[in-house]
Amino acid sequence: MGDKMNRRAFLGMTAAGAAGVVIGDLLGKAQKVIPTASNKQLGTATASAANETISFYGAHQTGVVTPAQNFANVAAFDVTTQDVKELKELLQLWTEMAASLMEGKPLAAEPQEGKFPPLDTGEQMGLDTGKLTITFAVGASLFEKDGVDRFGLRSRKPAGLTEMPIFHKDSLQDQLTHGDIVIQACADDPIVCFHAIRNFSKAARGVAHLRWQQTGQLGVKSQGTKRNLFGFKDGTANPDLQDEQFMKNNVWVEAGDGASWFAGGTYMVVRRIHMRIETWDQQPFSDQEEIIGRQKVSGAPMDGHGEFDKPNFADDSKGEVTALDSHIRLSNPRTGENSERERILRRGYNFMDNLDNVGRINAGLLFVCFNRNIQTQFESIQKRLTNPKLPDKMLSYTDTTGGGYFAVLPGVPSKGSYLGQSLFT
Ligand SMILES: C=CC1=C(C)c2cc3[nH]c(cc4nc(cc5[nH]c(cc1n2)c(C)c5CCC(=O)O)C(CCC(=O)O)=C4C)c(C)c3C=C
Ligand SMILES: [Fe+2]
């Protein structure tokens, strides 16, 4: 009850958002900041000269073509309300919150009047926003669950948005898989990411709750392409983030692709891939390179010298230089016209979650990729990697335990609009 009233109060306060007032401004004016010793000393996040912020507003959401920040927190929610009005209100509230957080503004610096918990939990105060991006996406279950058209949205589901299938050798755990809504928070500070997810969850109480969440990180001061936990450079063959033509062709959904409300969105694939670190660490150096299909130190292809040299598979049809079942050769055989059309934008993070229940290191890759068509891009690649007749050599060293398929909502063009607005109109 308290939470519901709290959210209503928040929404009431932000009703002015529709008239173009952002939460941070509004709360900044409506609620005075107590000049405690700590915030006097630290100031608000926006006060820092080094504070780099990214605008929430635009035709596309951020966190897709944004260069990967050092930390990520990806969280999936189950929507518990059956009332579409409450779902819409939650998306409106999250819109205002996300815009404010990305600007480095606190949601509120002060307890509310009366006996309510503070609107902002506060652990980010004094921290740089760290280029925080917050990306919202929805799963197939939001449109239809167990055959039920829960919110009258069944007919709006983009055709390519299915529940993530179980691929060969997958070990999906229900509590780490799927979800009605996913929020990806990325920033150069892990507490900033955590703070965002925590406050979205807090604001959702009674309407949606966390189903799973996964943190991830990259090397903080590494030079060049970051490495995964097998010790290889990961991202070398990724498209150039400045390549707008590639993003238009392979990442952003267009109105003609199907559901017109989804234009400007993209499909997000998440795979929580546990890596059998202890087994991998016993493999000879040369075997590790053969499995990946690249040189470990430089990241160069097996037949090249520099990281960005192009492998020449055409002159190696028997796989004597780059094994036919190496990871890069199966991921991108570089034959036929499909190769370019199939290309995805990868944006993964390493995860390190202590030990599992039998004492093995519980670490791996939080694989995230964005693509315009899951079936002809991600799935086409994934099916080659998991083809039982010639599986990716790397498959013996990984177990995929969670993730899902999600539709990243189109961007919010300006203040006063909200996430998913086109879905409801
Ligand atoms: C289905 C898509 C992919 C999954 C799942 C996947 C998992 C995965 N990958 C690595 C490590 C590397 N991957 C590399 C390249 C690469 N991987 C995919 C796709 C998937 N990977 C693609 C499309 C490519 C690019 C292929 C190309 O065009 O050459 C590399 C090489 C360096 C690079 O280009 O990034 C590494 C290393 C791990 C560890 C992993 C799961 C745990
Ligand atoms: Fe890969």
Automatic annotation (TrEMBL):
Q: What is its main location?
A: other
Q: What top-level class of enzyme does the UniProt entry assign?
A: oxidoreductase
Domain Dyp-type peroxidase C-terminal positions: 225-412
- The residue ranges of the Dyp-type peroxidase N-terminal domain are 61-216
Tell me how the cofactor is bound. Answer: Binds 1 heme b (iron(II)-protoporphyrin IX) group non-covalently per subunit.
Q: Which UniProt keywords apply?
A: Heme, Iron, Lyase, Metal-binding, Oxidoreductase, Peroxidase, Signal
The EC designation for this entry is 1.11.1.-
Q: Which cofactor does it need?
A: heme b
Spell out the coiled coil positions from the record. none
- Do you know which Pfam families this protein is assigned to? Dyp_perox_C, Dyp_perox_N
| Location(s) in or outside the cell | Cell envelope
Q: What is catalyzed by this enzyme?
A: heme b + 2 H(+) = protoporphyrin IX + Fe(2+)
Q: State its role.
A: Involved in the recovery of exogenous heme iron. Extracts iron from heme while preserving the protoporphyrin ring intact.
Q: Into which family does the record put it?
A: Belongs to the DyP-type peroxidase family.
- Matching PANTHER family, A to Z? DEFERROCHELATASE, DEFERROCHELATASE/PEROXIDASE
Protein name in UniProt? Deferrochelatase
Please state the gene responsible for encoding this protein: efeB
